[in-house]
Amino acid sequence: MATEKQNEMRREQILRSSGVNPRKCMKCGKCSGTCPAYDEMEWHPHQFVQMVADGDIEPLLKSDSIYKCLTCFACVDRCPRGVEPAKLVEAVRLSVIREQGANHMKPDDIPAMLDEDLPQQLLVSALRKYAK
Amino acid sequence: MKVSYFPGCTLRTKARDLDLLSRRCAEALGVTLEEIDDWQCCGGVFTTARDEIATKLSSVRALKAAKAKDQMLVTVCSACHNVIKQTNHAMQTDSDFALRVNNYMNIGDPENQPYYGETKVLHFLELLRDVVGFERVQAAVKNPLTGRRIGAYYGCLLLRPGKTMAMDDVENPSIIEDFLRALGAEPVIYAMRNECCGGYITLEDKGLAAKKSSAVLADAKSAGAEAVITACPLCKYNLEKNGGGEVPVIYFTELLAEALGIKED
Lengths: 132, 265
Description:
Mean pLDDT of chain B: 96
CATH class of the largest domain in chain A: Mainly Alpha
Number of helices of chain B: 11
Number of helices of chain A: 7
CATH architecture of the largest domain in chain A: Orthogonal Bundle
Shape of chain B: globular
Low-confidence stretches of chain B: none
Strand content of chain A: under 5%
Oligomer: heterodimer
CATH class of the largest domain in chain B: Mainly Alpha
């Protein structure tokens, strides 16, 4: 269990790294409404914004939701307040995988996932999102 | 004219046709794609975090190589385009990021000139629209694709984030439809043309990728498209592998080469 101090430092780092100001959010829910991964997420884009604003970071760090974001930027372009939730999701994910041994995907996992048509672009994209 | 060209990892491997036909079509339209020396993979997706430096250096190297030749930098793959254009935008607008990147670039090269996003980055479709001009493309068409009903698939990376990509209206785009009209084809508008195919999630969640991709193709089919075109190898893979197979998915360059009469050269 992380201490309050650790969580506060992590929250500050997430805000700095994402450049997002979650207090600009007016809670319209458009980000979650347009998110292609909504059904697969435990915490949804609007909840990321709210929870980071409130300092309620820990549930996000522990959730698989951080690996469900597709970085499609739909929430970034469609947010009427310019909050850019995807950047926040990314900063939370980086905060997790930057820890020692916390990569979500490892190169050794790759061979079992391959098929003959799979483009290289897919591998580099996944490794960039799931590993440091 | 000559422009710098960044092919990217997949155009050298699984998407060789996309590379080959792009070069050939460009040449036919009076533009030479000069491949950058020793380019490195862009990484496939842009890391939005402002403190991610190393992951963006390969894009900056490509941008600097184009600047050194005083050329525009053209990409064909939607992902390369997205990563390189967003990196360039960050170099122009985020001074802290630009300073750190330039510090890296100085290592081993004290004569290194700092870079602040001077290079103009264009997707191949933008090259056709803004430099060549769709009217000149139209004039070069030898085999018009008359009667062909084609759906444009923009996906996510080609247009978003809209302010940075500055390519088209993100919700009501027209660049690929105008491209199709120039070739004599009939563009089919459908609602899902700028929704995500599932992207890299297919590696660990095929179900989600299948849901997203099949919704795109079903929508294109119900709108009457006989095929959809894309500029992204990952979209093509997802739509073909996970999309249910109801509508063929082809690269936009294939139609261009066919219309220009140079597909089988």
